[in-house]
Each structure stands twice: as C-alpha cells, then as structure tokens.
Amino acid sequence: xxxxxxxxxxxxxxxxxxxxxxxxxxxxxxxxxxxxxxxxxxxxxxxxxxxxxxxxxxxxxxxxxxxxxxxxxxxxxxxxxxxxxxxxxxxxxxxxxxxxxxxxxxxxxxxxxxxxxxxxxxxxxxxxxxxxxxxxxxxxxxxxxxxxxxxxxxxxxxxxxxxxxxxxxxxxxxxxxxxxxxxxxxxxxxxxxxxxxxxxxxxxxxxxxxxxxxxxxxxxxxxxxxxxxxxxxxxxxxxxxxxxxxxxxxxxxxxxxxxxxxxxxxxxxxxxxxxxxxxxxxxxxxxxxxxxxxxxxxxxxxxxxxxxxxxxxxxxxxxxxxxxxxxxxxxxxxxxxxxxxxxxxxxxxxxxxxxxxxxxxxxxxxxxxxxxxxxxxxxxxxxxxxxxxxxxxxxxxxxxxxxxxxxxxxxxxxxxxxxxxxxxxxxxxxxxxxxxxxxxxxxxxxxxxxxxxxxxxxxxxxxxxxxxxxxxxxxxxxxx
Length: 480
Ligand code: ADP
Ligand code: ADP
Ligand code: MG
Description:
Layout: E1 4-7, H1 11-23, E2 27-33, H2 40-44, E3 47-52, H3 62-72, E4 76-78, H4 88-96, E5 100-101, H5 106-113, H6 115-124, H7 139-153, E6 157-161, E7 170-173, H8 176-194, E8 199-203, E9 209-217, E10 223-235, E11 238-244, H9 251-267, E12 272-280, E13 286-292, H10 299-306, H11 310-318, E14 335-342, E15 344-345, E16 351-352, E17 360-362, E18 369-373, E19 388-396, H12 399-412, E20 414-416, H13 422-428, H14 432-435, H15 443-446, H16 459-473
Helix pairs in contact: 4-5, 7-8
The chain binds adenosine-5'-diphosphate (2 copies) and magnesium ion.
Protein name: Acetyl-CoA carboxylase biotin carboxylase subunit
Organism: Desulfotalea psychrophila
Domain Biotin carboxylation: 1-449
C-alpha cells in the first residue's frame, strides 16, 4: 500500500501540499467542510473525506481530523498554514496517536507561539530585539505597568496579543490615555480571536522593513537558511506582496540576519521548515520579531530563487530523512515577487468579496510565471473563509525584468465576478518608489494614489464580461 498523507487544510495551500505529496508518489487524503464541497482540492486528492457542515469549526476539530487520519491509514498530517498549523494541541494529538505531524514538535510550537516566551528564548541566545514588556497583569496593576513602559520607552508603543498571529491583535498606541482605553479592548479581542487574553508591549520600530528568513532543519539539528524575503508591503499588518531576496542594499546586514536566523532556530531546538521574522529600521538596525512554525504563504518566492521545493523537503524531513544539502549548496538566482490576488475591494478598505461567482477566469502564463490557486470559472467563492484566490509568483533575472514580467501578467489576468486586488497591484508596478525598491511597512499609507483606478476601463475585463454574457445567454446580446 502507498504511503498516505492527510492534508488538514483548504484552498490554494491544500492544492500545493497535494501536488508535493503526489510528486513523492504518496497518496493525498483531503478533508473538507460543506462550503468547500466544490473546491478543487477535493477533486485532485486521491481521497477526500467530508468533515462536517462547518464553517471553520471542522477544519479546527482536532479529534475529527485525527480520526479521519486513522481511518484512512494516513501516516502523516500536513497542516499547511492557518487553521491548526500552529496549534500545539494538534501537534501533540498527532504525537500521541503515532501520526507524524509535518512541522516542529508540540513543545517548540508552544514556546514560539507565545511571543513573550519566544522573546525570552531569543534574548537568552543574545538575539537583538526591541524592548518589550512581560505579559500585562490584569486590572490596574497591568495598566500601571503599561503606563510606566510608555513613559520609559516613549510613545508610540505596540500593544500586542501574546498568542496573536495573522496580523491580528496588534495596535499602535500613541499616548497614555489611549493605552488606558485600549488595553481592555485588546484583551477581549485577543480572547475572542486566540482564546487567550494575554497582551504585552513592544517599542515601535518607526517605518520598518519586514524582512524574514526561511529556515530548514533536520532531526539531527543540521540547520540551513534559504535567504531573505521582504514582506513590508502590508495592509492592516498583513502581507500583500512578498519579494525574495530583500532589496536592502547592504549585503553584510542581510548575511548577518540570515546567520542570526539560524542561531535563533538552533536556540529554539527548531525542526522542519520555519520562518524567522525581523524588523529593520532606517539605520539598518535589525530586531527579532517572531518565528512562524509552519510553511508560509510566501514560501513560493524562496522556492523560485533557490530551486528548492520547500514542501517536498518538509515532508522528507518529517519522515526522518536528513537534509540532503548544506548551506554552501544553496544558490540564489534573480528575484521573485508574489502578489496575493484576493477577492477584495482595495478601495473599500480591502473589503472581502466572498459569495460572488467567478464568471470568467483567464490566467497568464509563460516564462517565469507560477500560479498557486484553487478557483476556476463558475466557482462561487465561499464567504466563510479568507479571500485569497490565487498567488501569482513571477521570477526574473533582475529586479526590472521581474517587475516587467509581473506587469505583463497582471495586464493579462482576467477574473470577472468579484472585485480583486489586480488593478491595485497594476498601479504598484508603475509606482516609482516600488520600482526603486524603496518601501517599508508604511508604503500603502504613503501612496494613496495607488487606490485610484477605474474598475471598468480594463479592455480585457470588458471582453471577458462579454464572453461570459454570451456564454450565459447563448447569443451575443450586443450583436445586431
Ligand atoms: P503576527 O504574528 O500577527 O504576524 P508580528 O509580530 O509578526 O505579528 O507583526 C506583524 C506586523 O506588525 C509586522 O510585519 C509589522 O508590520 C507590525 N509590527 C509588529 N510589531 C511591531 C513593532 N514593534 N514595531 C513596528 N511594527 C511592528
Ligand atoms: P529530492 O526530493 O529531489 O529527492 P532532496 O530531499 O535532496 O531531493 O531535496 C529536497 C529539495 O531540495 C528538492 O527541491 C531538491 O531539488 C532540493 N535540493 C536538493 N539538493 C540540493 C542542492 N545541493 N542544492 C540546491 N537544492 C537542492
Ligand atoms: Mg508575523
């Protein structure tokens, strides 16, 4: 019997994982909730098991997923990103049931999922970071400690959920009054989102670049890095565009950050693939931010410049194989840019456009273009999940070539039905600061002009809409 691996996820990442599993000549078991019953991950898997009506609760149901793994005979589970990927109870349940969890141990996930503990481990290892507080105590005591912290380190101060993720649970606090006001709100939001109401403080790095390092480690502790990614272009502390490698013109700094990331991974006894995130200020100071204990959405840009299949490697490492390459074997070539094409209206503060049907879908292709998506013409986007439709990753030899390719692809990408981030991204590919590699996490705030475009002028879109109408009506309604 073939080795089976269960994919505990949905959307584009489920498809990415299934492809890697099938390339390894293993079988992929997909799971799904009712709103996903038409999704492509079910069709391409070797086997698919319905979990329940959902939404979002069955993909998070540890007991159910473990039961499915046992019933189908899966030896391992890949959690992807989101859902149970960084849930230490899930990794623990796998460990207890002799199922291989494709990721680090539950202990590592517990430690690194808690930003305060992670910071402590990294501080002990001598890794640089911004000043931060302990978890704030409940009630007046916590508020007083927070005000003292603000006094000492000067505002603005970041108020962060200790167990936060996905850019949620982060607030910038400008003064003492706001601090008093927002601590209880932050707490209750953290409780609702992460089932944990702990919050802590960090000094704010002003207009930083977000630079992260991809790490790979095997069971023997051999640890390598696959270089940097710049994920500074964000909305609401969430990434939109990712670039490998970082455009910072300071090779020494980038080398130091990569070495620091390996040191950080070792300090945490890290195993499998992970990402060490840093913030970099205008004076090229770098600060540890967190470690994500899973495959990242943006892993594709690193794959494009290194040629290393990160998911394939994750699976092999989890099955006990050693890393087959050393640091010196890893070569980086050119640039890669990923754009997250979301069903969102950038003009309406990126409001999700779920519930709409993709009436026309025509994707670009050609040299240096990679698409990781799951939608197709006629697919109705479930409203209950995130709005990512497809990730477009382009690779080029130079920065200019890569941006030129990206622009060509965006111009040719037709998605009719929901509004998407495509026209907004097209503006970015013509924006001088972007072209010059000059961006940090304040990029969107500084460029309101990116939000002006006409949704309806795109010729290709018009054409696509027409074809959709002809298709639906059986004749061309505009023909004489
Ligand atoms: P998450 O776990 O949600 O990814 P992070 O701690 O990685 O949270 O922070 C997400 C983003 O929030 C960063 O990329 C950055 O834009 C912003 N951010 C977080 N902490 C700080 C800080 N101390 N100073 C400035 N920006 C910050
Ligand atoms: P495979 O899965 O092809 O049998 P490995 O387990 O050795 O190979 O490697 C996992 C990933 O790392 C694959 O994407 C492979 O192409 C890549 N890789 C392997 N060896 C090297 C090397 N020396 N330099 C760069 N990439 C490598
Ligand atoms: Mg982060």
